[in-house]
Amino acid sequence: MKGTLKARQKELDRLYPRWEKKTIWEHFLDTVKRFPDQEFIAAQGRESYTYRQAKEESIKIAKGLLAEGVQPGEHIAVQMENSPEQIFTALAAAAVRAVKIPVNTALSAVELKFILEQSEADHLITDCQMKDSVPYERLKGIIFLPEPEGKADVPVTGWKAFLEAGTGAVLEETQKEPHGDEASDIIYTSGSTKAPKGVVLTHDMLMRSAFASCRNRGFELGRRIYVPLPMFHVYGYVEGLLAAILVGGTVLLRRGKFLAGEALDFMEETRANDILSVPAQMMALVNELRERPRTLSHLHAVYCSAAMCPSWIWPAIRETLGVSDVITGYGMTEVCGASMQTAPDDPDEILQTRVGKLLPGGCSGFPQFDGHQLAYRVVDRKTQQDCRPGEIGELWCKGAVVTKGYFKRDQANRRVFTEDGWFKTGDCGCFDENGYLIFAGRVDDMYKINGENVSPQFLEEVLSQCDCIHTAAVTGVPDPKHGSVGAAFIQLYEDTRENREKAEAYAKAHLAKFQVPKYFIYMKQEDWPRTASGKIQKFHLKEMARAAAENGAGNR
Questions:
Q1: Gene3D superfamilies given for it (predicted)?
Q2: Are 373 and 359 in contact (CB under 8 A)?
Q3: What residues does 530 pair with on adjacent strands?
Q4: Looking at the DSSP assignment, which residues form a beta bridge with residue 423?
């Protein structure tokens, strides 16, 4: 039995009475000792792996890296779909103290070229087809799984040959000195803005972040976590893989496109206790379960985050999935994932209006941050002074899980870090009297109409209350008369003339006159520009809105 939230948190405190700075590999080895025969990876259509077996597979890859001449601190780009090999490779990189560059598998040739060059990657490990238009000359070698495809100007090694080459290498399992403060990953921002930057994160930062989430959510030992999110992004990586390692949990992997019915089948087969999701996935699951109800007897926890959820989704999750622990969160790659979460026993009213509060760190927290791992300020961008309570401003943060900077981006670092070390997140919001964050969107998303500030996040929340609207996103458009006007991108449950009129009438009835969008642009599910983690790419919407404004489309 999972037990109560307090009992589970108490068990975690017993397991981790004090925090020790360690590498990801060292944390993994600790878990192997504690739970050697516990299932670690269950992948669809594949044999499962225990922690002991995963250690053996990871050591094979680590030895292969050593045979390739990989040294501590070298950069290894890893472009792989969610799979056992992807996890083993991540652990192997940590074992040899290489810096892993997780690469999105859907990148274009231009994007891949940019990341390989900007990250100064020395090797590439991939299960994707090589792109002929990408120059690979800078790399020392490419390791291809399963066997090489395409041509490159550097040595290309198949997986089997790579593993065989490492049989004679020696991996030191214990380190004489602590290396938890070394960089373990450079994770590139997901692309909801135009310029991806490499966020440098250390072993200790990432594991601390995972532990705070485990503790807030009350992870039971052996939790089985379905991760339909790509683990080359921080959400699935930290909340899925690293969190599972801390509790001897099982990572459940299913490759291919996310299809609600098949995902539910997989969750039943693998006895999933928990699912990490983005709103688009959760809405698909809820709709599927409303049409074809079923019971997931092992599931008791849901984490839905990374984008705004319509308010109806939270009671619908409890109703259709039959779970008790439902949370959302707020964070970013630059703070190792979620820095705030709601509590598993928070009511739907909190989930509908807040994105969480600072995570208590337990043994991983710091006295100077009141037991948390970091601190936040709400700052007026003009005066650079703290805002009054309840006043919306830019969120600044500082702490143990905040990146020290972007890789080789000195100008960007000077722009986002203050002289005394505060990181300017570019997000807007304020905290309520109980410490919960009311999120108001990105600084760049805010716009003014005749001098009045407008928060797209607020408009999206209001519009999502309309029962004919499935998804809403709002952006500002330059306007010569008013400075800016709003453009609302709307996906309806059923796209009819009547529902369009209903949606626009709802906006006029529930928003102040100046807040009502001037343009309404109607979308199909496949029209939304999204990142691999499910976030709507606002910069693309802004381009679409400008084009619509120039053509007079949707003018109201």
A1: 3.30.300.30, N-terminal domain of ligase-like
A2: yes
A3: 536
A4: 397, 417
